[in-house]
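Good morning C.,

I know you're traveling, so I'll keep this short. The sequence:
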Amino acid sequence: MMLFVLAVALWAALFALNLWLARPGAPSWAGVAVPILFGVALLVLWEATVRGFNVPRILLPAPSSIVATIFSSLPILFADFMQTVVKGALTGYLMGCSAALGVAILVDQVSFLRRGLLPIGNFVAALPIIGLAPILVMWFGFDWQSKAAVVVVMVFFPMLVNTVEGLMDTDKMQRDLIRTYGSSYWQGLIKLRFPAALPFIFNGLKIASTLALIGAIVAEFFGSPIMGMGFRISTAVGQLNLELVWSEILVAALVGTGSYGLLSLVEKRLTFWHPSQRGSS
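The tokens, ready to paste straight into the viewer:
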């Protein structure tokens, strides 16, 4: 109980420090320190609650136990990462986003496709992945190809809709002006409309980056070789190995956060001219 009291006192001190750093007029480095300290405070409270109240590990393991499991299971976690993230999620993400960009340019040129394909895209995007995943697994097999197919379905239409909206973002006066200089469709697309669509495109890429990982993990619940994050989570739950389950969840969260942050950095470098980026700098 003494350990629980000390942990709660430490949590209270960290929380007070966080409030002080979040005050108006705080230094610029406080913007990074605040979320870090907030996360540390939550972990301290989590550890104290589990240890102080003797919570069974099959309900909620302590953070220290999860960290120990991560270090003792690095080969397993790395193999699951390669299977789910690199082979399934990344492959499907690149294929789906590339196809969406190409189809968006075609939709931009053919108004019939804009009126006919986009409503279908909204319909498909609303379909539950829990229902599509087993069908695609049966079509493409139990290896990473079926997971990539699920990811393609999940990322294609959000990317398509965002790209089409971005290509339509320029107003008629801008398009008329560039045509008066004798530019072709492709010159206007590359020099005017595609740069103007970059904020929309990056919005689609960031949404798709989180959907890709979710889709690959969910698809592995319906059939997978003896590796992969979804496979490991389902089997570890059956074995009551909750530390390994949380380890896989942590890896997935870090991958998703890292990919989203990387895309945000690239977006900031390429769309520095956009008002949203100028306002955030």
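Safe travels,
E.
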